[in-house]
């Protein structure tokens, strides 16, 4: 009898403290922490005015919690299914790794800090509204690990230590054709393919795109900024057409046509396609004028021959 009275007293004190602390734990219905009017099965409301408030919810697991058993979890939210089955919605493993939409025994949770999936390849697994920052030394976004590759088939990283810093599109170890700088977008806005940004000669010049080993394309369109950039000036009346004997003398002395760069210049400076096409057209138009002039002379000689 005395024991029963003592226990009743203790229970009364606990209930009084719980009520005073704005907590309620009824035998039936919703339970509340920080509220006397819980609206969920367990309703936790944090008083933000309290200087001793460190966390709204904290779960401490024992240090002996197994980190080797694939089914052991530190925390899990799951949904019930048919035939007493359950589906994991959110799980925290003892090693701190987190899974969303994966079962506790998923092998990825042994080595991946965060695994997110709905097991449907036709749906978006992660949607970030606003900015997403991938930071840290050699931090990369990796793609294409469906074949079991540890780091996937492609990586994108910001290389701040290159001579010309920028964004590196690379192939990680274990992928097909491991290597760096398949494409590199430099901080200065220039883009290279297959070239090392640590080589100071990579970005010499005023061009936006640098490609190693060449380009194959079905179509190229080169913009001409003004009509003066094209060679129609050859057909203007004030154009000074070089006499053929002077052309012959120039070729003999220099080994190339007038107003056309030499092979040595091409090797050192490359070719501007638009300018070179204009120069080649210039020579075609000059050649046309030479032929017209020669045709007139031939016609004149024929007339003289007939008169004689």
Structural class: alpha/beta
Give the proportion of residues in helices.
10-25%
Radius of gyration: 40 Å
- Number of helical segments with 4 or more residues: 4
Shape: rod-shaped
The chain-level mean pLDDT equals: 86
- Largest sheet entry: 6 strands, mixed
Annotation, overall tally of beta strands: 12
Strand content: 15-25%
Order of helices and strands: HEEEEEEEEEEEEHHH
Commentary on this structure:
This protein has a six-stranded mixed sheet with strand order 7-8-9-10-11-12, with no helix packed on it. It has a four-stranded mixed sheet with strand order 3-4-5-6, with no helix packed on it. A hairpin with a 7-residue loop joins strand 9 (166-171) and strand 10. The chain is α/β, with parallel strands linked by helices and 308 residues long. It folds into four domains: 2-44, no CATH class; 75-116, no CATH class; 140-211, no CATH class; 227-307, no CATH class. The chain is built from four helices and twelve strands; from the N terminus they run H-E-E-E-E-E-E-E-E-E-E-E-E-H-H-H. It has helices at residues 2-20, 244-254, 263-269, 273-307; strands spanning 31-33, 42-44, 75-80, 86-92, 98-100, 114-116, 140-143, 154-159, 166-171, 179-186, 191-193, 209-211. 23% of the residues lie in helices and 18% in strands. Mean pLDDT is 86; it is low at 1-20.
């Amino acid at each position: 009898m005395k024991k029963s009275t003592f226990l009743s007293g203790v229970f009364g004190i606990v209930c009084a403290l719980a009520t005073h602390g704005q907590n309620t734990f009824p035998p039936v219905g919703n339970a509340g922490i920080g509220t006397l009017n819980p609206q969920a099965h367990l309703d936790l409301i944090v008083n933000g005015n309290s200087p001793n408030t460190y966390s709204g919810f904290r779960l401490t697991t024992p240090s002996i919690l197994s980190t080797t058993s694939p089914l052991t979890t530190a925390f899990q939210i799951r949904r019930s299914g048919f035939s007493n089955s359950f589906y994991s919605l959110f799980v925290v493993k003892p090693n701190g790794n987190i899974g969303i939409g994966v079962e506790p025994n998923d092998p990825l949770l042994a080595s991946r800090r965060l695994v997110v999936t709905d097991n449907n390849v036709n749906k978006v697994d992660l949607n970030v509204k606003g900015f997403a920052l991938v930071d840290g030394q050699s931090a990369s976004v990796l793609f294409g690990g469906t074949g079991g590759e540890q780091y996937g088939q492609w990586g994108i990283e910001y290389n701040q230590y290159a001579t010309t810093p920028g964004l590196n599109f690379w192939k990680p170890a274990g992928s097909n054709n491991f290597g760096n700088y398949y494409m590199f977008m430099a901080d200065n806005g220039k883009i290279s393919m297959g070239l090392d940004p640590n080589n100071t000669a990579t970005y010499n010049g005023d061009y936006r795109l640098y490609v190693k080993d060449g380009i194959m394309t079905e179509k190229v369109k080169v913009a001409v900024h003004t009509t003066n950039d094209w060679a129609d000036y050859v057909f203007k009346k004030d154009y000074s057409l070089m006499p053929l004997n002077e052309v012959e003398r120039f070729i003999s002395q220099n080994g190339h046509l007038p107003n056309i760069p030499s092979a040595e210049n091409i090797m050192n400076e490359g070719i501007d396609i638009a300018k070179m096409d204009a120069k080649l057209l210039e020579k075609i138009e000059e050649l046309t004028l030479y032929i017209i002039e020669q045709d007139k002379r031939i016609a004149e000689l024929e007339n003289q021959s007939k008169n004689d």
